Amino acid sequence: MIILYFLLIFMIVTAILAIELEDLVSSVVALFATGLALCMTLIVLKAPDVAIMQLIVEPLALLVLIKATLRRDLPFSLSGRWYVNTFIYGTFFITLFIVATKCFKDLPVFGHPLMKTTALLQQSLFKTGEVNLVSAVILKYRIFDSFGEAAILFVAVIAVLTILRPKGKKNE
Amino acid sequence: MSLIVQTATRLSVGFVLLYGINIVIRGHILPGGGFVGGIIIALTFINIMLAYGKKAGLKKLPKIMTLFFSTRGILWLFSLVLLSFVVGYLLLDFISNSDPFSFYNTGMISFGPIEIALKAATGMFAIFSVVLLLGYKDKDEDGEGVL
Question: What is the pTM of this model?
C-alpha cells in the first residue's frame, strides 16, 4: 500500500508539472512520467495486461505529441475572461468533488473484488480451452466487442488518412 | 539522425520486431495480445522512419501494403464474427482444444490476435506517417528532417 500511495502522489505531481511547465517538450516528458507511474501502479494492482497496454501505447502517443509540438509555439493566452474561467473551474471542481465523494462511499474495500468471478475462473478452461482468462473473455465471450474495437480503429485510421492527406482531390 | 542513432537502430530493430511477433503469437496464453504486439511492430517501423528518414520507412512498409493489411485484418475479424452468427456459438470450435498450453488450443480464435496485430500495426504506422508528413509540410519543404 505504501508503494501504491507513493506512485499515486508521484502521478499527481508529474501531471501538475505537465500542465504547468511552459516548455512543450518538457511537459510531454512529464506526461510520459505520469504514464510510466500509471503502468507501475497497474503492475502493483496485479493487472499485467493493462500495464503492457499502457506501457506500449504511451510511447506511440508520446512520439505523435512530440512531432506535433516540437519547433512549434502554440499560442497561449493569459489575459481576459478571468471571471468566466474561474466560474467554470469552480463549478467543475465542486461537481467533481461531490460525485467523487459519493463514488468513494460505494467502492469496495481494497483487495476485495467487486465481481464474483469464481465460476468464470473454474469453467473458462473447460469451455474455451483458454489458459489466460483475459484472452478468453476478449476473444471468446466478448468477440463482438473486440470486433467493434477493431472496426473503430479501422475507421479512425481511414478518417485520419482522409482528413490529413496532403493534397485534395481537386488540386491534383 | 546521427550515426550513433542509426547504428543502434540497425542493431536493435530486429530484436524489437521479434519481441512484437512473440507477444502476438503467445498473446492468448501470456499477458499481451494482438493490439499490444501490433503496436510494438509498428514502433519498429516508426523507429526506422525516425532514424533513417521518411523515405526509408516508407520503403520498408509502403502505403499500399499498409492499406492492404489494415483492410485484410478487419475483413478477417468480420468473417469471424459473421461465422459466429451463422454457426451460432464461437465456443463450438472445430479445431480441437485438447492441450491447454499449445498454440492451437483455442481453435481458430488463435488466428484472431495475428489479424488484430496486422491491423493495429499498419493502422498506427499509417497515422504516424501521415502526422509526420503533415508536420514536415509546413516546416521543411524537402521532407528530410530530424526529430
Answer: 0.73
